[in-house]
Automatic annotation (TrEMBL):
<dbReference type="InterPro" id="IPR011057">
    <property type="entry name" value="Mss4-like_sf"/>
</dbReference>
<comment type="function">
    <text>Catalyzes the reduction of methionine sulfoxide (MetSO) to methionine in proteins. Plays a protective role against oxidative stress by restoring activity to proteins that have been inactivated by methionine oxidation. MSRB family specifically reduces the MetSO R-enantiomer.</text>
</comment>
<dbReference type="InterPro" id="IPR028427">
    <property type="entry name" value="Met_Sox_Rdtase_MsrB"/>
</dbReference>
<keyword id="KW-0676">Redox-active center</keyword>
<comment type="similarity">
    <text>Belongs to the MsrB Met sulfoxide reductase family.</text>
</comment>
<dbReference type="Pfam" id="PF01641">
    <property type="entry name" value="SelR"/>
</dbReference>
<dbReference type="GO" id="GO:0006979">
    <property type="term" value="P:response to oxidative stress"/>
</dbReference>
<dbReference type="GO" id="GO:0046872">
    <property type="term" value="F:metal ion binding"/>
</dbReference>
<dbReference type="InterPro" id="IPR002579">
    <property type="entry name" value="Met_Sox_Rdtase_MsrB_dom"/>
</dbReference>
<dbReference type="GO" id="GO:0030091">
    <property type="term" value="P:protein repair"/>
</dbReference>
<keyword id="KW-0813">Transport</keyword>
<keyword id="KW-0862">Zinc</keyword>
<keyword id="KW-0249">Electron transport</keyword>
<keyword id="KW-0479">Metal-binding</keyword>
<feature type="domain" description="MsrB">
    <location>
        <begin position="17"/>
        <end position="138"/>
    </location>
</feature>
<dbReference type="GO" id="GO:0033743">
    <property type="term" value="F:peptide-methionine (R)-S-oxide reductase activity"/>
</dbReference>
<keyword id="KW-0560">Oxidoreductase</keyword>
């Protein structure tokens, strides 16, 4: 159950479903832990292009730099690259897409798409739920 044993493949942040429910909003829980998707165009970061870092909304691990965010027009925040080692990829159960998750806590971020022709260095689009991330402006003091 609440096994502290490292199951391998999972990250450094491990919590039970109850613990996650206690610290996440219902919407965050639905998306991060139950792999939900926010409604297109409703996310708070879709049109944000300020300087800073996007952390995992679940565990606070830095995931994306603002410099890798671009306007995809798809209705969700889009990044062409995650921070090294911060993001895991796995085949989505739908058999078509590639799911991306926070490497530290396993929280669901969204999906990554490749070869869509966006003029970015990687030609990848990380399509991320705003709910899954937390923006920290570059000029803000550390919160801890
Ligand atoms: Zn996380």
């Amino acid at each position: 159950m609440a096994g502290a044993g490292d199951g391998g493949g999972s990250g450094s942040v491990q919590k039970s479903e109850e613990e996650w429910r206690a610290i996440l909003s219902p919407e965050q829980f639905r998306i991060l832990r139950l792999k939900g998707t926010e409604l297109r165009g409703t996310g708070e970061y879709d049109k944000v292009f300020a300087d800073g870092i996007y952390n995992c909304a679940g565990c606070g691990t830095p995931l994306y730099k603002s410099g890798t965010k671009f306007n995809s027009g798809c209705g969700w925040p889009a990044f062409f690259e995650g921070l090294p080692g911060a993001i895991n990829r796995s085949p989505d159960p739908d058999g078509r897409r590639t799911e991306i998750t926070c490497a530290a806590c396993g929280g669901h971020l969204g999906h990554v798409f490749k070869g869509e022709g966006f003029k970015t260095p990687t030609d990848e689009r990380h399509c991320v739920n705003s709910v899954s991330i937390k923006f920290v402006p570059a000029n803000s003091p550390p919160s801890l």
